[in-house]
Design a protein that fits this description.
The chain is of the alpha/beta class. It is 34% helix and 18% strand.
Length: 326
């Protein structure tokens, strides 16, 4: 990422969003929109990203445009948040391309980009007071990446205060993150609507992610096991089989895939991320995290379990539990 601030003039594109880097510039840009004749029905929508934008991000922005309305304001934040990276993770090598991101946003309906540096977001260094994700941050991603969701919620709350949106849009691919944000907004009485947007996938089923850029051609082919496993589990649910069969089918596909190291595979309650019991009936979320080469990927699939363990296939002891990690 360059230190220069792209602008509509710099890109010679009149549709390019304005780019601001400081709190003062952001405050002025937000005030200018409000003063310039915003209608009472207009809304400000925000999409929070870490940059390296792909079509999944752009779908969020387009949905934000719909939520804000044609004369509303769409703000995209681009900030690689150090609080959500643990020791040994890819903070330093996380892909950064602000110029390219702004060029892409020119086609998606964004009005304003807020691209602060860490010293703008955290002017006093590491914050002493942070948001806790509670028990949502202690399982699955939270167990494997201690403090990750606390870091996510801390920056999301700060950005909500700075941008003051009416609606915030998040991708459903990061399902546990989306749930944590929803709980924070509800539990802390934030006056913002949270909208989840379905995962965008490549033609072959791979969930779009900025980290896909790390994958070699061979690794990318191996990574397709994640989406295949989710589809396999969803097929079991659609066929009327129980929770154990859903997990078993997905686990079998992952175990058969060479070169995929599974961190977890879990069937959980979509409102709490608690593991579902073996006799669960109703909506559930099938979650997977795995490493392919040096790249860690996550994905999920909503399923509707309609069969109890004594219907369809025989139960086993894996329902509602995380699959054994490789």
């Amino acid at each position: 990422m360059t230190d220069e601030t792209p602008s509509a003039e710099a890109t010679s594109d009149p549709t390019a969003p304005a780019v601001v880097r400081t709190r003062e510039e952001l405050r002025d840009a937000l005030a200018t929109w409000t003063i310039s004749g915003a209608e009472p029905t207009d809304r400000r929508a925000v999409v929070m990203t870490m940059g390296a934008l792909h079509d999944g991000h752009l779908r969020l922005v387009r949905r934000a445009r719909e939520e804000a309305g044609p004369t509303g304001q769409v703000v995209v934040t681009i900030f690689v948040n150090p609080l959500q990276f643990g020791a040994g993770e890819d903070l330093d090598r996380y892909p950064r391309d602000l110029d390219g991101d702004v060029a892409k946003l020119a086609t998606a309906g964004a009005d304003l980009v807020f691209a602060p540096t860490p010293d703008v977001v955290y002017p006093d260094g590491d914050p002493i007071v942070r948001v806790s994700a509670g028990r949502i941050g202690e399982v699955l991603e939270g167990e494997l990446r201690p403090g990750h969701l606390d870091g996510v919620l801390t920056v999301v709350l700060k950005l909500m205060h700075l941008v003051r949106p009416d609606v915030a849009l998040f991708g459903q691919k990061d399902a546990q993150q989306l749930l944590a944000v929803r709980r924070m907004v509800a539990d802390l009485d934030l006056d913002v609507e949270v909208v989840g947007v379905p995962t965008v996938r490549e033609a072959d089923g791979l969930a779009m992610s900025s980290r896909n850029a790390y994958l070699s051609d061979e690794e990318r082919a191996l990574a397709l096991a994640l989406s295949r496993a989710l589809r396999g589990g969803a097929d079991e649910a659609a066929a009327g089989h129980g929770a154990a069969a859903v997990l078993g089918a997905a686990s079998g596909i992952l175990n058969a895939a060479g070169g995929v190291v599974v961190d977890y595979l879990a069937l959980v309650d979509p409102a709490t991320v608690d593991p579902v019991p073996a006799d669960h009936r109703g909506p559930a979320l099938l979650l997977v995290a795995a490493r392919v080469g040096a790249t860690r990927l996550i994905d999920n699939q909503a399923v509707d379990v309609t069969a109890a363990p004594d219907e369809g296939r025989e139960p086993d002891d894996t329902a509602g539990q995380e699959a054994d990690r490789d």
